[in-house]
């Protein structure tokens, strides 16, 4: 059983990646394999609505998306993590969500019945909208979404600041534990 945490921040080792790593550690403590996937430095182009993915499970746009899509299909759990950029998820994350959503929707809904959830980091505002934005994606694709002790959001701007948000870290940790619990229950 594997959970992948996809970090949509263009900043390597930033707050979103730290929070995702923290959550994956909670999951790995429960005996599940984990992998952190960084979108930073990758090219993920936006969907151009060509609809070629309706005919075959692929995308004609040549970039780094399809290997990530295949990893997502193999995983039992998926975390989408994004910092807040002007009140929303990053462009990298939104491009991934759109294209993965289109490809999968026409090919047997492979994410239906998997476990997923969002992590969001912001300097101050926009966390709830971005959290909802990511959560809606999980809902429309048929994921089961575990809860936590609060919404999976944390505060931090400069690298490392998220490590001082005790409530955010605790919430992300509890989300990871709940995610592992749900995956094991569903797969037993």
Strand adjacency order, main sheet: 2-1-3-4-5
Unreliably modeled segments: none
What average pLDDT do the residues reach?
97
Q: What is the fourth-level CATH superfamily? A: Flavodoxin domain
Over the alpha carbons, how many angstroms does the gyration radius reach?
15 Å
CATH architecture: 3-Layer(aba) Sandwich
Give the CATH topology. Rossmann fold
- Report how far apart the termini are: 11 Å
Q: Mind telling me the CATH class? A: Alpha Beta
Secondary-structure-based class equals: alpha/beta
Q: How would you explain this protein's 3D organization?
A:
It is built from five helices and five strands. It is of the alpha/beta class. It has one domain: Flavodoxin domain (Rossmann fold, 3-Layer(aba) Sandwich). A five-stranded parallel sheet has the order 2-1-3-4-5, sandwiched between helices. Strand 4, helix 4 and strand 5 form a beta-alpha-beta unit. Helix 1 packs across helix 5. The N and C termini lie close together (11 Å).
């Amino acid at each position: 059983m594997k959970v992948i945490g996809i970090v949509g921040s263009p900043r390597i080792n930033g707050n979103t990646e730290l929070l995702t790593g923290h959550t994956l550690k909670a999951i790995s403590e429960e005996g599940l394999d984990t992998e952190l996937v960084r979108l930073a430095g990758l090219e993920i182009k936006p969907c151009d609505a060509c609809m070629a993915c309706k005919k075959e499970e692929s995308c004609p746009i040549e970039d780094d998306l399809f290997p990530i899509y295949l990893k997502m299909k193999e995983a039992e759990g998926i975390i989408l993590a994004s910092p807040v950029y002007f009140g929303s998820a990053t462009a990298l994350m939104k491009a991934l969500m759109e294209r993965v959503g289109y490809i999968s929707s026409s090919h047997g809904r492979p994410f239906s019945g998997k476990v997923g959830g969002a992590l969001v980091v912001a300097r101050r505002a926009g966390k709830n909208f971005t959290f909802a934005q990511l959560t809606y994606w999980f809902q429309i694709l048929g994921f089961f979404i575990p809860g936590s002790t609060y919404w999976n959001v944390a505060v931090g701007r400069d690298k490392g600041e998220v490590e001082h948000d005790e409530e955010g870290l605790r919430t992300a940790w509890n989300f990871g534990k709940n995610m592992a619990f749900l995956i094991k229950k569903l797969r037993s």
